[in-house]
Design a protein that fits this description.
- The protein is α/β, with parallel strands linked by helices.
- It has a 6-stranded mixed beta sheet with strand order 6-7-8-3-9-10, with helices on both faces.
- About 40% of the residues are buried.
- Helix 5 links the parallel strand 7 and strand 8.
- Helix 2 runs parallel beside helix 4.
- The two termini are about 50 Å apart.
- Bound molecules: adenosine-5'-triphosphate.
- The site of adenosine-5'-triphosphate has 11 residues, from strand 2 and helix 1.
Length: about 325
Amino acid sequence: MTATAALTIDRLRVVYGSHRALDDVSLQVEPGEILGILGPNGAGKSTLLRAITGKLRPTSGKIFIAGKALFPGKAYQHSIGFTPQFLGLYRHLTGRENLAFFARCTGVRRQQICARVSQALEEIELTDKADVRVDQLSGGMQRRLHLAATLVSQPALLVLDEPTAGVDLGVRMSIHDLIRRRAEQGATVVVVTHELDEAEVLSHRVALLHQGQLRALDEPQALVHETFGNRQLFVVRTVHMVPPALGDRLREIGFRRRSDDGIDDSNDERNKKISEWCLESDLPLDKLIDHLYRDLAGARDAIAEVSVRRPGLKHVMQHVTGARTDSVVASESEQES
Ligand SMILES: Nc1ncnc2c1ncn2[C@@H]1O[C@H](COP(=O)(O)OP(=O)(O)OP(=O)(O)O)[C@@H](O)[C@H]1O
């Protein structure tokens, strides 16, 4: 345990009935750090956030905020800002009125409220819409305002539950900028997200939860490297009726087949079915292509596409949760095709 940690979670356990929602979770977050919390549904993410924000009494274990023990139920609104997943704004009030209300609730001094609200509106670039009722703002504007309701009290610890749920790329980027700026100013951010690409670009470190346990904790690129080393993910798409010589060659290299009813642009009915073959390997691409195509003669025409991609957090997550990487890679190419 470092004395300087903004947040320390020490052997936290939460049991609901006979179910362990969190099982001996320990981690620390430093001031100015953005920690992404990842995990499949039911992994224990919301339970962890509820414990950190003092809304839930853990079965055992302790939480320290800036070195001080957290007592569940005590009001921490000055030091902990929580943005829940679902919008909690008063729709019949304006953005300015909403922020002033949340500033008052979180203990901002009366004479500071006006300046804090203006500053928060400026930060989320909604100054020109400050006096528009919330129900007349777009979804993206409401999402930014929802986050500003937490930022207005300038808490040292920001706890965010899916802050970009349902927004377009532009709003997502501006919310990321907002979070990064607060972290650069010294705030500590704990953010739950289901978007693994988002976690990869936004978080300094990520914590992967699975079945209530902390399965991995590190910088995103370090986790990818620890899991995959120099291995990359190769996908070969072939016609469904794959010639035996090609099938043998793919298996010999180590590819696993995953069939589906993909569509290609050929008019030949027999070719309308596509098969996908996936491989995790540290072979360089040119070597793999050379090996794949060598002496294949006519069978090489059955190869529709060869692609390679770097593994990312989503592939690490699949390793951690026990799913096979090749099925993830294949389902990604389905989405792209
Ligand atoms: N109040 C409760 N009583 C009983 N069981 C609960 C309660 N809250 C959560 N659980 C269970 O604890 C486990 C963890 O739930 P939690 O909501 O923390 O997961 P999560 O990772 O946030 O999931 P999601 O991504 O679906 O929001 C789940 O199995 C859930 O059913």
